[in-house]
Amino acid sequence: MEHLFSDQSLTVMMKIIIAVFLSGAIGMERGMGNHHAGLRTHILVGVGSCLMMILSLYGFTAFSEEHGYVQFDPARIPSYVISGIGFLGAGTIIVNGSTVKGLTTAASVWTVAGLGLVIGAGMYMEAVFTTVLILLILIFLNNFEKMFLANKKQKAYQLEIELDRDETVTPIMEVLESHHLALADMKMKKQHDGRKMLYVELETRQALNEMKLFEELTNIPNIRTVSTVKS
């Protein structure tokens, strides 16, 4: 019983609890934004990497004391944690055409892994400072981007255009180019009655006059309807 609650065991449990709270703080911020990797994922990554660091520091102490000629590198296991966490971060990244989402969440998962290693090494003040800094970056820089960088980001539009069988896409492309819309993806599907459904994914950095765009598209001969697809 004394071995279970030794000073080293209490230190290990304290490190794990700190990892839960600090990793959970970052995970909660991600979860509040409805990101794929939220509270539970970040806690598991932080605690798991903390355990790997603890294993690297204390797990082989008895063996090394028994076999004095054997030496261990305490940085070996943490190095594999940092390189191996990439597969989990990649799972949070979503690529839709030319749009990429989830990069920030992937970076936060990778950072939380490093946070767990730092806690496992006993660098508590550094871990707390880093957690506060990460939260400030995620919360306040996100608002900064929305306020000052919104106009510089590409905005995505998806259109559904119903065509007659004899219509070509050349006049449509000319109208889209006149509104400074870049083509990201285009799909054509034929209906049973001979009509064609054209699905166009567009991007622009400028403000779009949708009413004028729809008017010019519907004025093209043999175009029946134009509508916006909600993503």
Automatic annotation (TrEMBL):
Does Membrane count among this protein's keywords?
yes
- Compartments, record wording: Cell membrane
Q: What Pfam families has UniProt attached to this entry?
A: MgtC
TM stretches of this protein: 12-31, 43-63, 75-95, 102-121, 127-144
Q: Which domain of life is it from?
A: Bacteria
Indicate the principal place this protein occupies in or around the cell: membrane
Q: Which key words are in the record?
A: Cell membrane, Membrane, Transmembrane, Transmembrane helix
Presence of keyword Cytoplasm: no
Q: Which residues form a coiled coil?
A: none
What is the membrane topology noted in the UniProt record heading this document?
Multi-pass membrane protein
Start and end of every MgtC/SapB/SrpB/YhiD N-terminal domain?
16-146
The UniProt family comment states:
Belongs to the MgtC/SapB family.
Instruction: Indicate what this protein is called per its UniProt record.
Output: Putative Mg2+ transporter-C (MgtC) family protein
